[in-house]
Amino acid sequence: MFYMEVYEPTEDSQLLKKYIQKHAKGIVLDMGTGSGIQAEEAAASKKVIKVFGVDITKESIIHCIKNIQNKKIKFMMSNLFSVFNKDERFKKIKFDTIIFNPPYLPQDPGIEDVTLYGGKEGYEIVMRFLYQAKKFLKPKGKILLLFSSLTNKDKVEKYILKYNYVFKELDKKHWFFEDLYIYLVEHNPKKKIKIR
User: For the chain, what percent of residues have pLDDT higher than 70?
Assistant: First the structure.
């Protein structure tokens, strides 16, 4: 069965929200915006000029447009960065801050909830995101990335380094059957940024 719903804020969303005011600035992308909680938090900062909230589900975008009125925020449907690749208006856009609370759980047989599952092993969406983000993150931009111990922490770190980023663990919280991590990810200043 295939489910597409608005991801309701839970412990992971609240954990990530704590770091938005400190780190969000300039032009912000809230990837996988869901309920729009992180986009709203970013827009509340005086350091933030504009926020783009994108999500693969139509339900999420409709929910956000109906329930969040903020001139700083623009909500759009997008499969990761697809809208910025296809729409001429955004071809040259780059972000100071990218926020991502991805679907990060390993796939369960017969269930394909795009708001929860990050691929067969759990880290595939994070991997694709990190690769694509290189093109859209400013040289001194920052990514706030949340993921779970169920995602395979070693794999996430492997791909962060593989795609020429550096990272710092900002927070870790145990919640029920998993550990939640908040990473601050940036371009590696010692390596040239390669964009394909």
Answer: 83
